[in-house]
Specification:
There is one protein chain. By secondary structure, the chain is of the alpha+beta class. It folds into 4 domains: about 10-155, beta-hairpin-alpha-hairpin repeat (Alpha-Beta Complex); about 170-220, no CATH class; about 225-410, beta-hairpin-alpha-hairpin repeat (Alpha-Beta Complex); about 420-500, Double Stranded RNA Binding Domain, CATH 3.30.160.780. It contains 24 helices and 30 strands. The strands form 13 sheets. It has a 4-stranded mixed sheet. A 4-stranded antiparallel sheet has the order 25-28-29-30. It has a two-stranded antiparallel sheet with strand order 1-2. The protein is elongated, with a radius of gyration of 29 Å. The N and C termini lie far apart (about 65 Å). Pfam families: Plectin.
Length: about 500
């Protein structure tokens, strides 16, 4: 705190947790001290003395002003002698470090004994065992995430000499971009995405974040999902939604493909090569508003589902096991995740190797067998060319890779139900270009956002300004000729003659 490495309020919470779980700790000398001893020896400053003495009463007990008896932290909370949010934070820390403390004898108790003595009850135990947002009382100083004390302990490293748990303060330059939030190098190590050797080389500056990001891109971003379609006859690239609007693929097929996009990370604009969350995609007309609610639901496979019983954020597989989503639906989305890089851990915001997914309960042997040997019942996707039911992986194998963007595009061998002939007159594009002030290199709006040259709001505003219009002449089956302008991004069509008549 004094070196400016963690904020004062974050430090205070961690020091209060020490005092409330037994002792102040000097990790250098491996000493356990009372609050008075810690202040006297200069381990903590005198400005924190009163607050830490108050926290220490979670060990020594509170005096009941009505009876004069010594009571526990939980009992003091119930009598409104301490604020509930403070008490829950401290009780959770005690529970995470070995059990609730008996203030009469100064030792920890098994949970059932603590309940018998009135030092905790089932309702409060449930709240702190599976803490919801309002009970997450600590902050990870590296990522600024709200965490429970138990979660913070898992992020610590155990000192080999003292066996003490030390919270690693990762350099903020050693953060990686996950699907929805930043990830520390320690999270990658813990998730078995990088090795101990890579971790050490990274922290010693022998390799860069950029180099490691390239090596583990599969887990940070995933590989390309089916991003759009490629029309073989016209050589046009279309978004899934555009292809549906042009009657080239059925609405049900389009929805399944869009749902798979949302559940594997992002909705894709294959024309501009943009990765968008569902709300952004609707705002930018990459998908229509009629799909918004269902795609937001699918997006929870990335951001997590809220368990209605515990309030905890759980994964797609866990939600399926608890019956929060239908099994066939869950299998379809899970298979799409695995086909595009791995199962997503919504808490960590990245994909996992299979072994790590097993360990965290985000996958099991039964589900692996179902997905390894799929039956017709579990083939949840549809090939619009052959009208076969396929797995997502099988459908991806039939895709082509766009040489410009590297995205996977589903090849459409013919224009389904399109009853018109057309001759193109011109295609007009408007692109916004950002220049890197350091290198002078031109880049797209998305590339500039990825490099941190512009913020998210600016990225959204500039991306909306980009467009690609195609002027075509259409001859219908009855010989009527029309001049049309088509927005190639959204698929919207405008009749030039009608527009001129309105003017």
């Amino acid at each position: 705190m004094k070196n400016g490495k963690i904020k004062p309020e974050v430090a205070l919470n961690l020091l209060e947790a020490q005092a409330a779980t037994g002792f102040m700790i000097d990790p250098v000398k491996d000493e356990l001290l009372t609050v008075d001893e810690a202040v006297r020896k200069g381990l903590v400053g005198p400005e924190l003395h009163d607050k830490l003495l108050s926290a220490e009463r979670a060990v020594t007990g509170y005096k009941d002003p009505y009876t004069g008896k010594v009571i526990s932290l939980f009992q003091a909370m119930k009598k409104d002698l301490v604020p509930e949010d403070y008490a829950l934070r401290v009780l959770e820390a005690q529970n995470a470090t070995g059990g609730f403390i008996d203030p009469e004898y100064y030792f920890r108790l098994p949970t059932d004994v603590a309940m018998q003595r009135g030092y905790i009850n089932k309702e409060t135990l449930d709240r702190i065992s599976e803490p919801t947002e309002d009970v997450l009382g600590y902050i990870d100083p590296t990522t600024d995430e709200k965490q429970s004390y138990a979660q913070l302990l898992k992020r610590c490293r155990v000192d080999k000499e003292s066996n003490l748990r030390l919270l690693s303060l990762a350099d903020r330059n050693l953060l990686f971009k996950g699907l929805r939030k930043q990830i520390t190098v320690l999270q990658l190590l813990r998730s078995q995405i990088i090795t101990q050797k890579t971790y050490e080389e990274l922290t010693e500056g022998l390799i860069s974040v950029e180099e490691v990001s390239r090596d583990v891109k599969k887990y940070l971003e995933g590989t390309s999902c089916i991003a759009g379609v490629y029309v073989e006859s016209s050589k046009d690239r279309l978004s899934i939604y555009q292809a549906m609007k042009k009657n080239m693929i059925r609405p049900g097929t389009a929805f399944e493909l869009l749902e798979a996009q949302a559940a594997t990370g992002y909705v894709i604009d294959p024309i501009k090569n943009l990765k968008l969350n569902v709300s952004e995609a609707v705002k930018m007309s990459v998908v229509g508003p009629e799909f918004k609610d269902k795609l937001l639901s699918a997006e929870r496979a990335v951001t997590g589902y809220k368990d209605p019983y515990s309030g905890k954020i759980i994964s797609l597989f866990q939600a399926m096991k608890k019956g929060l989503i239908l099994k066939d639906h869950g299998i379809r989305l899970l298979e799409a995740q695995i086909a595009t890089g791995g199962i997503i851990d919504p808490q960590e915001s990245h994909r996992l190797p299979v072994e790590a997914a097993y360990e965290r309960g985000l996958f099991d042997e039964e589900m692996n067998e179902i997905l390894t040997d799929p039956s017709d019942d579990t083939k949840g996707f549809f090939d619009p060319n052959t009208e076969e039911n396929l797995t997502y992986l099988q459908l991806m194998e039939r895709c082509m890779t766009d040489p410009e963007t590297g995205l996977s595009l589903l090849l459409l061998k013919e224009k389904k139900r399109e009853r018109k002939t057309s001759s193109k007159s011109s295609v007009r594009k408007r692109r916004v270009v950002i220049v890197d002030p350091e290198t002078g290199k031109e880049m797209s709006v998305y590339e500039a956002y990825q490099k941190g040259l512009i913020d998210h709001q600016t990225y959204m505003e500039l991306a909306e300004q980009e467009c690609e219009w195609e002027e075509i002449t259409i001859t219908s089956s009855d010989g009527v000729v029309k001049s049309m302008i088509i927005d190639r991004r959204s698929g919207r069509q405008y009749d030039i003659d009608d527009a001129l008549q309105e003017d």
